[in-house]
Design a protein that fits this description.
By secondary structure, the protein is an alpha/beta fold. The protein has a five-stranded mixed beta sheet, with helices on both faces. Strand 1 and strand 2 form a beta hairpin. The two termini are about 30 Å apart. Bound molecules: zinc ion. The site of zinc ion (ZN) has 6 residues, from helix 4. The site of zinc ion has 6 residues, from helix 4.
């Protein structure tokens, strides 16, 4: 089952001019994968429309989605699931050499986990407000935490990331 078959053509809006030009294509590719994961998670009934991908150098280590419904676990957010799955990898992936791509700005719990896992970089698509606006109130980010962390945080403009919340609304 391909994602394209479920969600139709994917349109990608390029990042704001001047920012991270060199890594822009790469970032769009991995962030698109995270958004596709979010769609998969909803369509197979595992959870809410959130996806997260962990990348080591240029390779995807894990690609995960929200599992709160399947696991009956309110903490099974995509980012948490991705960190746990990456840690289970047999060749001991070093998380501090990895980047996370999250379809949506991580909530306070996930940001705490990302910080503790020492991931070196976070790229996200939709703003937390976009999720909160359609009923995912627990998604509100605590941007105060961002300043306490050393990791590089990039907000990428990717139209499909926010369009998701028009499609999968709780309200
Ligand atoms: Zn979260």
């Amino acid at each position: 089952m391909t994602v394209e078959a479920n969600v139709g053509p994917i349109s990608v809006v390029s990042a704001s001019a001047g920012h991270h030009e060199a890594s822009s294509d790469r970032d769009h590719k991995f962030l698109t994968q995270a958004v596709e994961e979010a769609y998969i998670g909803v369509e197979c009934g595992d959870g809410r429309p959130f996806g997260a991908v962990i990348v080591h150098k240029n390779e995807i280590v894990v690609s995960c989605h929200n599992m709160v419904l399947k696991y009956k676990d309110p903490t099974a957010h995509a980012e948490i699931v991705a960190i746990r799955e990456a840690c289970k990898k047999p060749n001991e992936v070093k998380l501090w050499e990895c980047e996370m791509y999250a379809s949506c700005e991580p909530c306070a719990m996930c940001f705490g986990a990302i910080h503790l896992s020492r991931l070196k970089r976070l790229v996200y698509g939709a703003k937390a407000e976009a999720a909160a606006a359609v009923g995912f109130s627990s998604c509100i980010a605590n941007t105060g935490l961002y300043h306490k962390s050393n990791l590089e945080i990039v907000k990428l403009d990717l139209s499909i990331a926010e369009q998701m919340f028009q499609k999968f609304s709780l309200s």
